[in-house]
Amino acid sequence: MEENVITETKTSLNDVISVVYFNAENAVFDVKNNFLTLDAKLKNEQGETEDKKFPRVYLHRAFPFDNPFSYISVLDKDNKEIGIIRELKDLDENSQNLIVDELHRKYYAPSIKTIQSVKERYGYSYWKVTSDAGDLSFTLQDTFRSILKVGNNRVFIVDIDNNRYEIPDVEALDFKSYKKIELYL
Asked: What is the pTM for the complete model shown?
């Protein structure tokens, strides 16, 4: 009579995934042809460290609202993660400046100072606002889902073109502006 023997294999998270954390010793960011590039020291399949160049990389914040300069994912042209920047201060000064510029460009959101009008028609709301970028007009579809409260008073608005706008503190808005959006908050 044969016995069926089941062998148990234990796999740790480190065996399944390998996360590379970038710092000044293993990563240098630069700009070439208006694209953010990366020269990194990465381990190959044999575990040996080798230099690898990425002619274009993209940044994605893991915590875009709470920690804007911590845990920044670095992606290649195919949207595959190369590694993570734990803290911006871990990189050299030039790399830090380039990354801050790139993140500001990617996550740019005009700050709304006053709301001139909000008109609803056929499931859309049409907004006219004054922001730190001047007077703006934009349209929201499904207004309630397009407004995201972050914290007690901070609000982000995403229009139908996926442009983002920010109200840093809804309580700091003038009375008329607040009344125009109070229903959506």
From this structure: 0.71
